[in-house]
Specification:
By secondary structure, the chain is mainly beta. It is 13% helix and 40% strand. The strands form four sheets. Strands 1, 2, 6, 7, 17, 18 and 20 form a seven-stranded antiparallel sheet that branches. Strands 10-11-12-15-14-13 form a six-stranded mixed sheet. Strands 3-4-5-19 form a four-stranded mixed sheet, with no helix packed on it.
Length: 337
Amino acid sequence: MAAGLLLEIRRGTQSALLVIREADPPSSPVDVSVAADRVEVKSGGSCEAVTLPPEVRLAPSSCRGLRRLPGDGLHLRMCLSCPPPGADLVSTWRESLKPQKNYVFYCQSCGDVIVKDRKLLRVLPLPSENWSALVEEWCCHPNPFARSTLHPQHGDCFLGETFFLINSGSESHVPEFPTCCSETGHHTSQSHSNLKSKENTRVVCKRCKTMLGETVSSDTIKYYVTEVIIQPSNGSFSPKPRSQFIQSMVAQCLVELSSAKSTFRFTLKGDNGKIFILIWLLNSDTLLVESSGSSSSHGVFTPFGDIFMPSSGPVRTWNAVKVLYQPCIKSRNKEFM
């Protein structure tokens, strides 16, 4: 049968949703057996037995709501017999940067060194993107910061919500700035002019040509957290699969923003400022365990989406956030914007 099994656990409610994925609709009845530490699926002459991680234990008597969803598989809800393990306290990228320490900046896509052995004298958080508008609301006199710019000095690192700013002076490895010949004459539209200006400020990796960020001023570079990895100078660079890294960074940003701004609605915008996807954060207390299924009669659960996990060794679980998303391309879902 080679069924794939997904177990979605909610820490808050101590409940679980078991999804038995099917490559093809079964030609014979399916028998699902649930034990405290084991799930077994039989169909015809095949049997798929999966052992749960030791920290996850089910309550078989609570099973309910068995149903089959076309294209997805069998769904079965149940409770846990004991509380699931708490979320690991993994430091975020903002928390991992410390002042008075040396760091190396790497391109996440290819591992090339972007900034070598940079000592960060100060690591400071930036205000939210709309802080200037808030000042206008709170001040009874003209905005005193209207002409002020928050540009880092040498040794500074300013942390934004999805980016960080550093001073570009005295770098041992300066990123490649795409050159673009200046055009004579006038642009046909302001939007075209803005787009051209945007292209001239892009910072790309010399090796793989991935866009890493943009220049904010003559001495300030904005790097995107999804494109650059920062590690201590005394450490070694360990590459991480692109998809796994992006998922981790997006999840961190959603959880941090949701907590700081008490919101669960987010948008993703392109370089031109247009919204192309809407995201609703449904929950952040999910624990996922997955078995992709195989032709063998026994298997073990592996972390969700981690295809690089070895087949042997200790079994662990996967913390995740659950989101609902809607695309906004081609004038879709305008009513939600």
